């Protein structure tokens, strides 16, 4: 788990701030200069500011470049199809989606760790080479999950130059195309998940109507059958 966490932490955008960390002196978080009144004036270094700026955006970037979006949407639609308002709670859904994402992205994270982070930490790669190697596994994963129509659409919108191979697609085009494809796939899976539960609701409502029990909510009666089906 530690290896996977380190691999995710060295996602391509995070590599922007790593050279400063690789220096022997580390990052000087604050610098002080003598003030006119005899005190000290403290200033935040640009390196530290950039590092924490990238770090604040890293969770959102990593989630958008993984399968987390698809998983959390499908789980939310499944809960809605079951008819349970808050069970399982949001914390459980997010936690389950995170662990499933780590499980799915583990091979990609291992490649980033072995091919980009480890050589860079040993000063065997420059920042540019580490960035390219770290982005390659993520781009490969996203390309496999991205529809050609979505990719072509964003290439057209971005007015990007024609690429000879799919791996040459820039990340600024690939990421929105990947997210759009993930949303479409998630809603399609949610539609399929909804069908059996919708059939149960229709059957229960028809039975209650035929029995003259119109005042009883079909949701209450169908919930045990939905749980059994799940």
Structural summary, described in words:
With 230 residues, the chain is mainly alpha-helical. It has a domain at 1-34 and 41-54 and 72-127. Strands 1-2 form a two-stranded antiparallel sheet. It has helices spanning 2-9, 18-22, 46-64, 68-82, 90-121, 127-145, 148-158, 171-210, 218-229, and strands at 30-34, 40-44.
Describe the SSE topology.
Layout: H1 2-9, H2 18-22, E1 30-34, E2 40-44, H3 46-64, H4 68-82, H5 90-121, H6 127-145, H7 148-158, H8 171-210, H9 218-229
Antiparallel strand pairs: 1-2
Keywords:
230 residues, mainly alpha, two-stranded antiparallel ribbon, 9 helices
User: What is the gyration radius calculated from CA atoms?
Assistant: 25 Å
| Strand count | 2
Poorly predicted regions are 1-28
The biggest beta sheet, please? 2 strands, antiparallel
Question: Can you give me a brief rundown of this structure?
Answer:
This protein has about 230 residues and is mainly alpha-helical. It has nine helices and two strands, in the order H-H-E-E-H-H-H-H-H-H-H. The protein has a domain of about 100 residues.
